[in-house]
Amino acid sequence: MKLAQDHGTATYRIRAYEPGWIQVNDTTYETSVMLMPDGLSTAPAAESFEQLTRDDLQPAIDWQPELLLLGTGATQRFPERTLMRALIASGIGFEAMTTAAACRTFNLLMSEDRRAAALLLLR
Description:
Oligomer: single chain
Order of helices and strands: EEEEEHEHEHE
CATH topology: Hypothetical Protein Mth938, Chain: A
Number of domains: 1
Radius of gyration: 14 Å
CATH architecture: 3-Layer(aba) Sandwich
Strand content: 25-35%
Strand order of the largest sheet: 5-4-8-6-7
Largest sheet: 5 strands, mixed
CATH superfamily: MTH938-like
């Protein structure tokens, strides 16, 4: 396997994830988090996929990433059409996946200095 040095400039990187918690840099969170290359918020009100609303996505919509990753907990699920339409209307690419997969993908995108955000739900 060929290894390459990570030259990304993002401030926040995910160091570990297990159901119920996520470690970003040196801090462990037991709540949903919104991550951007230079921003972290624990303000999302949704603690589970079922509670997800447009208000939880609004910080990413305002920031206008090229891609928003939605970590939906232990299983991949897709949000209501109205939420997906809001992202599409804003010109933001969107991927729903398990939170574990979203964590890995976010770190990969950060190593490439991509303009991406991730809303990571823990349940």
